[in-house]
Amino acid sequence: MAGSQDFAVDPRNAAARLYLNGDLVKREDARVSVFDAGFVLGDGVWEGLRLHRGKLLFLETHLDRLYAGLKAIALDIGLSREQLTAEIWKLLDGNGMTDGAHLRLMITRGEKAAANQDPRNWLGRPTIVITAEYKSPSPEIVTRGLSLFTSSILCTPAQMFDMRLNSHSRLNLITALLQAIEAGCDEALMLDPSGFVSSCNATNFFFVRDGRVMTSTGDFCFNGVTRGNVIALCRAKGVPITLGDFSLDDVYDADEAFVTGTFGGLTPVREIDGHVLPAALPGPVTTALRAAYEELKDAQAA
Q1: Which of 44, 130, 283, 294 is in Cβ range 3.0-4.6 Å of 108 for a Cys bridge?
Q2: CA angle, 219 then 70 then 32, to 5°
Q3: Which H or E run contains 144?
Q4: Cα 237 to Cα 205: distance, rounded to the nearest angstrom
Q5: Strand partners, 168
Q6: Which of 134, 163, 194 is the last residue of a domain?
Q7: Positive or negative: CA dihedral 264, 134, 49, 173
Q8: How does 276-302 read in b/e, with b if 16+ C-beta sit within 10 Å?
Q9: 275-276 and 187-191: which strand pairing?
């Protein structure tokens, strides 16, 4: 069993440097304080990026989300978008990377005077870490598809724990995934507080019936960049799409389904709670949208 983030080990990553507060360091030398707010509390935000043919895909949209998250937690990192982008390229150029890399940009409030919750006890220096690794989705997942299990852990509204904020605090999502793993499945499907299908534990969820793509309203799920691109592609390509409130029964009657994320793009789903979807993998709508998304990526890199 493996989820949508499954990847093959690439030996080139052993020598790849990491970015740590302005320096490029070896993996074994990358260290942060045990008093770091990210370690103590999960106090920080992150962003995933994809390097494709020499370009960072949808960079401005990702930076929009990152800086919105920083603003939401009142964290000024002292770098403009342009300066942060230059630091990202400093790492990529230092590693000689031009294609096929997945990046994780992690920013925490940094070291604190004591291991407690109060953000006023931080020492004023954020921690900025960027990892860049050669990682590609497992090709087998396209024809094998994911098995999803509906978790008892619910997605939460913004006034409780905002799913649209890329927070370092992921314990609720990990708990949902652990339930799915215990059930022998790959990933967790999560409902909103009203019982409607909302999201997976690490990706956004779509399903297809009679040629129409359907997904949640977006009020309780990740503010996924790939999700937004797929919705826009459906509208641009004339693929019928509805954003709404859907029950598990609606999902069980689907012809096909897929999840979306920066790393995997569009990953097919084969079954949900033991209900095997009838379309051969990947389904026809999924196949068409995967092709459209690859075209979009290539256009971004042109």
Answers
A1: 44
A2: 120
A3: helix 140-144
A4: 20
A5: none
A6: 134
A7: positive
A8: ebebebbbebbbebbebbeebbeebee
A9: unpaired
Give the separation between CA 260 and CA 19, rounded to whole angstroms.
27
If asked whether residues 27 and 117 sit together in one domain, one would say: yes
Instruction: Give the model's pLDDT for residue 1.
Output: 58
Instruction: Count structural domains, the chain.
Output: 2
pLDDT in tens, 223-271: 999 999 999 999 999 999 999 999 999 999 999 999 999 999 999 999 9
User: What does the alpha-carbon distance between residue 55 and residue 41 come to, in Å, rounded to a whole number?
Assistant: 33
Is the omega angle on the peptide bond into residue 282 within 30 degrees of 0, that is, cis? yes
Tens digit of each residue's pLDDT (9 = 90 or more) over 203-220 = 999 999 999 999 999 999
Strand runs labelled E in the chain:
18-20, 23-25, 44-52, 55-56, 101-108, 127-134, 146-150, 187-191, 197-200, 204-209, 212-215, 241-243, 256-261, 265-272, 275-276
Q: Does some domain include residue 5?
A: no
Average pLDDT for the chain = 95
Question: Which residues span the domain enclosing 209?
Answer: 140-301
Work out the number of other CB atoms within 10 angstroms of the CB of residue 242. Answer: 12
Whose tokens are 């033991």? That residue is 274
Which residues are paired to 241 by β-bridges? 213
